[in-house]
Amino acid sequence: MLYPAIDLRRGRVVRLTEGSFDAEKAYFDDPVAVARDFAAAGSPWLHLVDLDGARDPAQRQTALVAAIVQGCGLRVQSGGGVRDESHVRTLLEAGVTRVIVGSLAVKQPDLVGGWLEKFGPEKIVLALDVRLDAAGVPLIAVAGWQADSGVTLDATLRTFLPRGLKHILCTDISRDGKLTGPNFALYAQLRRDFPTVEVQASGGVSSLDDLRRLKREGAPGAIVGRALYEKKFTLQEALAC
Fold first, then answer.
1. Architecture label for domain 2-240
2. pLDDT tens for residues 7-50?
3. Active site residue 133
4. Catalytic (active site) residue 7
């Protein structure tokens, strides 16, 4: 499954490099129009992140998220600074299909595990963003990718599997926004170790060959952003892969 991505900052469609707000590139001023273009191209899904809300809950762009959901007709997975159950409910009531939960999954696993049980595994997707340590072990990053938690990806997944975990998106931060190709070995390992988890590969996709290889490696989904905006390929071509 392909998930074209919209990252929102101050109402615009932007992309960050390695999650840095100092490395922002703005692409479009009308995210509703971008989402409609994705729908017109045949995409069934949209990946939508509120960067302002991730940085400061007081700056959440909830009304804009709702407008995009209602205006495009796509199934939407959305998040950005989800810290409490009321925010999960607000997003679901706005029409979001799946709520993206990030750092909180590491900081408060019991709380997030409770959400998986309460709302169901189809309503929650964990964003588990990693940096590889010197031994190549993926460690979860938190605080908008600015800090390492010291918790391994493997341990986090094993914590949530008994709570019903089904969907994760996993980003190798070193690849994000660089168009250098995904970390294929990471996704292949996840597929071998956690075959019941639907993994969305995120970060680095730069070509149709990247998408084809991700499919061969067994990644059930892929998120694509900058490569679309910089016309490395069209969404129609990507969907055809």
1. Alpha-Beta Barrel (3.20)
2. 999 999 988 765 666 667 889 999 999 999 999 999 999 999 99
3. no
4. yes
